[in-house]
Every structure is written in C-alpha cells, then in structure tokens.
C-alpha cells in the first residue's frame, strides 16, 4: 500500500496506471502532472488523479511511488527535473517501449538516486491515446518486462514486481539489449509497416475509393497505424538500429514472396504461406517459450 | 424464396452462405458438394447442408440457386463440370476475392449459360477456414461487390442483389478491373505483408522467444496471416500484376520512412506518422466515399 502516487504524463499509460492502482486499493492519493495544463485538468475532472501538480518535481514531492509515463525522448529531461526529490525508498518506474535509451538516460542523469529507478515496459496499449482513453483494466492479464540496472535496489525490484502482479500482470526480467531486439521485431516493426501501408493506400489518387471498400482484415491489420505519432516517432528513433535491421529482414522476405509470384511458382508460394499460417494459428498471446532471452 | 441451393465448396464461405439462407428462411433445401468427401460429410453432420452430392454436377441438378465457393483457381474446372445443368433461370454466383480471372473463366467456359452467372465478392471472412468455422452471421452488415458481365441476365442481377440484401449486406456494382485494383490495395497486399512479416519473425533464430513477448498490436496485425494458404496462393497469383504494383508502392513508402529514421529526421517522420494516424482514426469500415470507381 502506497501513500501517494506521482504520475508524470497523464496520458493513456499513466492514467490507466493511476486508475488501476486506485481500483486495486493500493494507493491513497494520486498527484499528477502533464506538460499540457489542459490534460492535467481533464485527468482531475475524470477522477484519474486527485491533485494536479504544477510541475513534474511537485508531482514527486511526498510520493512514495512515481510513474514516469512520457514519450521516451522526454525521459531524460524528466529525470533531470525530478531527481532532487527522489528519496532512496521511493519506487520510480517508467513505461517506455524502448529500454536501452531510458537506461542510458538514467545512468547519465540520476546519480545517487539511480537505485530507485526500475525500468518497466508493460505490453499493453490501444490505438486511442490521451487521458480520455485511460482504463483501469488496461494492464490486466498483460506481460510487464523489467530491465533493472546493476545499481537498482533489489527491494525496489521486488516492490515493482509486486505492484504489477497485483494489477494482474505477468512480470519478466530481461536485459535492456534483449528487450530492444525483441520489441523491434514484434512491436516496433509492425507499427512501422502498418503506418507505411496505410500511407501507401491513402496517398494514391484512388485511395479514398479504395478505403471505402476495405473490410475486417484491413481494419485489424491497420489498427496500430492509428497510434500516437509523437510516441511512435520517439520509439522508432530510440531503437532505430534494431528497427532498421528488422525492416531489412522483412524486405528480404517480401522480395522472396514477390519472386515466387513473378515466377508463378504456386507450390513454393503455398509452402511459404502454409508455414506462416500454421505458425500464426499456433501462436497464443502471452504463452512463454522454454528458453527466454535474458 | 428458393427451392434448392446447390453449394459447391462447403468451406467457410459456402457453409456460411447456406446457414445464412436457411436462417433467413430463403431456401427449402441445401445440397452440397466438396472435393473432400469428409468435408461434405462434416457439413451434413453440422446441419450446414441437407443432402451430400457425389459431384459438383449433382449439386447443381434441381437447384434454382447455385453458389460456387471454391479457391479461385478451381473456378474454371467447376464451371466446366456443371454448365450442362445450369438452366437459364438458375442464379449462379461465386464468392471469389478476385474477379477478372473468374469473369475470364466464365467467358471461356460457360457458353450460352453465361447469362446465369453473377460474379460476387462478399467482403467478409475470418482467419479460421473450413466448414467448422461456418457462421450464419458472417455476411451480416458486410459489403458485397457484384461485377456482372455484359451478358449477365438483368433479372438475375436483381435477384442476386435481393438475396445479399436479405442477408443484411450492402450491394455495390463495379467492373472486374476496378474491383481487382481496389482489392489488391486493401486486401491482397495486407495479406501478403502479414504473411511475409510473420515469416520474417518466425524464421529468426530467436523467433520463438520474440513471439512469446508479442502483445495485442502484433495479434491484430498478424491475424490475417493465419488465413487459408491454398485460398491465398490462388488470390495472389490470380491478381499478381495489381498485387506486385501495390507492393512496389509499399516498398517505396517504407524506404521513405527508413530514410527519415536513418537521418534522425524527427520532424518529417512525425509528419508522416501523423498523416497516417489521422487517416486511420477517421476511417470507418463500410463508409462509402462520394466518387466510387465503376
């Protein structure tokens, strides 16, 4: 049980965490700060936070748990703004989709406060963004990856594990490097492809007519192309080496499919489609493999 | 009201049509044929069809409405097998996802029976295939594209329109060429990309570990990669010129995104992401644009 949660960035992720912690009865009071005063105001009006703070630093003052839920490129500036009030017993977490850059920022900025910081990535989200989309059940049943630093306080890693578990999450630990390689493959690349695909269609002269004919397959395939552009600008740039490497692999595979089409090679094409179709049919979300990367 | 529906190909599409027609009280009896006898047997056991036919021709005998629901590459052979029993008053439709090849096959094969054939493409489906996945509500609320031939009987076009409307569909008419260009863009290309993307991940040495970490974005983005490989082999090959042209456009757009990443051009990258995100947020399935291609 915490006395006060300080949320920096009252968007979808931060707002949902506040609502979830309240719903679970794990916090007495939520203080929130957002860069845009209207967001902080809306968060208060919707009951997502109890008290609006005038600055990130004031959201940390008196808090025993802090969630930094800003676009990843804003993490370093946020650390700089709040570090003076991060007491060694405070649990400070983030929710960034990339971890090497966040960990590097923490190493550069946090100094002796670094023990308080537990880098987190909850595998949850939806295409809507903003505090209006905040949802107490967003994290329920999801995985959360922790990528602790060598200096992170072991007791706070345990505390972070306990909090996410109490929200119904499955908690895993990985290195920031393995995290970023894996999420370039299963999250960042699909977002890049979905954005690029939607742009491909929308920018054709017949694009509007085409879009009016699109069905449920298109709907699901492009859902993530409606994600927040500022968030995804930061994620793609922060993890660009891994993302570009995965995109290269993808282009090679697409070229293989195209070649078989060009050649009318029905048999080899079906074999490739079949392998993917079977693999995808067997896949289940959140089902852990035997040998997980550490 | 029809006396007898003949279904050739008792899979997801054919089975769902039979169930929907029965549910709407539009048919007294359903006779079904599938290439695999075990499928026909399962269709009968599940109540999807009333009578199992020993051949495609026998499924047409005595039917006043016929649905050809086979992979598009099997359409021509099916026409050849049944044409002798297609009476001028019989309504014969297909459900193929490509239309130029189906219309060409009809022109080659159907001879004086061609007036009976109304080429149809219902924009419906799910990733499961086979008669077990048949669903009386599959077509409800969906669009159906008709691409009639010059020789198609006008009264049968009206009858086809009435049947699909009675199942809750919105019926549109287009040329086969405009149909195939549009669906290369909004359906065939996304399937190709989803298959190629899933293969990219699954064929990496760490692929299994990566897949165990994938979340809801990945789930929706790859749903269509679980589609039936034989069906999609045929569709991609039948419409390969349009599909390859769309894939080329996509690769150009992806290269533009990659270049902005390489250059760390955050502003231009965000502008591209923003355009796609806004476009996708405003898109609604089945919302017709003002100037539809004919």
UniProtKB/TrEMBL annotation, chains A, B:
InterPro entries (UniProt xref): 6-PGluconate_DH-like_C_sf, NAD(P)-bd_dom_sf, PDH_C, PDH_N, Preph/Arog_dehydrog, Prephen_DH
| Pfam families, alphabetized | PDH_C, PDH_N
List UniProt keywords, sorted A-Z: Oxidoreductase
The regions listed as transmembrane in this protein's record are none
Instruction: Give the top-rank taxon of the lineage listed in the UniProt record for this protein.
Output: Bacteria
Q: Where is the Prephenate/arogenate dehydrogenase domain?
A: 3-291
**Matching PROSITE patterns:** PDH_ADH
> What is the protein name given in its UniProt record?
Prephenate dehydrogenase/arogenate dehydrogenase family protein
State the species of origin: Roseateles flavus
Its lineage opens with:
Bacteria, Pseudomonadati, Pseudomonadota, Betaproteobacteria, Burkholderiales
């Amino acid at each position: 049980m915490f006395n006060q949660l300080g949320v920096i960035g009252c968007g979808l992720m931060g707002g949902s965490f506040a609502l979830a912690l309240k719903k679970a009865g794990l916090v007495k009071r939520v203080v929130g700060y957002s860069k845009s005063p209207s967001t902080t105001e809306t968060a208060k009006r919707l009951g997502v936070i109890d008290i609006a703070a005038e600055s990130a630093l004031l959201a940390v003052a008196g808090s025993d748990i802090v969630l930094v839920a800003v676009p990843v490129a804003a993490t370093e500036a946020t650390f700089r703004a709040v570090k003076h009030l991060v007491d060694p017993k405070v649990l400070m977490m983030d929710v960034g989709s990339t971890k090497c850059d966040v960990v590097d920022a923490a190493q550069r900025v946090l100094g002796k406060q670094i023990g308080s910081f537990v880098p987190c990535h909850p595998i949850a989200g939806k295409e809507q963004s903003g505090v209006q989309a905040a949802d107490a059940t967003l994290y329920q049943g999801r995985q959360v990856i922790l990528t602790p630093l060598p200096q992170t306080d072991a007791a706070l890693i345990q505390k972070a594990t306990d909090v996410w578990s109490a929200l119904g999450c499955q908690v895993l630990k990985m290195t920031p490097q393995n995290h970023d390689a894996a999420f370039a493959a299963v999250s960042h690349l699909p977002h890049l492809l979905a954005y690029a695909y939607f742009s491909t269609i929308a920018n054709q002269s017949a694009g509007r007519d085409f879009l009016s004919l699109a069905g449920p397959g298109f709907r699901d395939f492009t859902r993530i192309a409606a994600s927040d552009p500022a968030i995804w600008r930061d994620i793609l740039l922060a993890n660009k080496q891994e993302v570009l490497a995965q995109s290269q692999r993808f282009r090679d595979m697409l070229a293989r499919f195209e070649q078989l089409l060009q050649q009318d090679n029905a048999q080899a094409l079906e074999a490739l489609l079949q392998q993917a179709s079977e693999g995808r049919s067997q896949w289940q979300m959140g089902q852990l493999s035997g040998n997980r990367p550490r």
